[in-house]
Specification:
It is a single chain. The protein is of the alpha/beta class. The chain has a single domain, classed as Rossmann fold. The protein contains nine helices and eight strands. The protein has a five-stranded parallel β-sheet with strand order 2-6-1-7-8. It has a three-stranded antiparallel β-sheet with strand order 3-4-5, with helices on one face. Strand 3 and strand 4 form a beta hairpin. Helix 2 crosses helix 4 and helix 4 packs parallel to helix 8. It is globular and about 50 Å long. It starts with 5 loop residues before the first strand and ends with a helix.
Length: about 230
């Protein structure tokens, strides 16, 4: 597939990547790829099996036999293990922290990137995460970087967890986001950063409709200009 068929959305947790990514995929008829869900899946299953998440060799051995079923379309990104969907369970706040730990491991990053590139083969995709426009799809036809204030991101995360039936204090969420931001931006491999050529959007005071509108306008502009 050509790079014009790939759209990347990077940014920290709570900036709106998932919602915007799904909306763009639906509007364009593209696949929606959630890289964070794959990191969460690795962390969730490895933790359940008693694997030390801070031991790169142990995690690499676990990955050799890890084959979750992935279902991706324009409406969502779903993961199944042993025939059971676990997508919702992966959104737990604890799993997010574990995912940041395994994301520092080279073997995990290689595994996740390989899954994403396989899914993107010969299909238009909207891929969101923290290194989509820098590492996974550096030649993407259109790149976005979404950000928002920590206060706004924490409030959004709180609402998401409440919808999942999880009771977490706002202060704990803010502390977790700060820790994850620090890990993601300081890790040696593929740290969170604005991809070259990315369109940066601060979503703090913007509704989803406005963010999607800006993204679609930028995508149309890129297609028109051939850039």
């Amino acid at each position: 597939m050509g790079p014009r068929s790939i759209i990347t959305i990077d940014g920290p947790a709570g900036a709106g990547k998932s919602t915007v990514g799904r909306r763009l995929a639906q509007s364009l008829g593209y696949l929606y790829l959630d890289s964070g869900a794959l990191y969460r899946a690795v962390a969730w299953q490895a933790s359940r099996l008693g694997v030390n998440l801070d031991d790169p060799e142990a995690v690499a051995r676990f990955l050799a036999g890890f084959c979750p079923e992935i279902k991706a379309d324009s409406a969502g990104f779903r993961l199944f293990m042993d025939g059971r969907e676990v997508t919702g369970e992966l959104r737990a706040d604890e799993v997010g922290g574990q995912a940041s730990r395994v994301a520092k491991i080279h073997a995990v990053r290689l595994w996740v990137n390989a899954q994403l590139r396989r899914l993107a083969d010969r299909r238009g995709v909207v891929a969101e995460g923290r290194d989509q426009g820098t590492v996974v799809f550096p030649d993407a036809g259109c790149k976005f970087y979404l950000d928002a204030s920590e206060e706004t991101r924490a409030a959004r995360r709180l609402l998401e967890l409440e919808r999942l039936g999880q009771d977490v204090a706002l202060a704990a969420i803010r502390a977790d986001l700060a820790a994850r931001d620090s890990q993601d931006k300081s890790r040696a491999e593929a740290p969170l950063t604005v991809p070259p050529g990315a369109w940066v959007i601060d979503t703090t005071n913007l509704g989803i409709d406005e963010v999607v509108k800006q993204c679609l306008a930028r995508i149309e502009m890129a297609a028109t200009n051939g850039t």
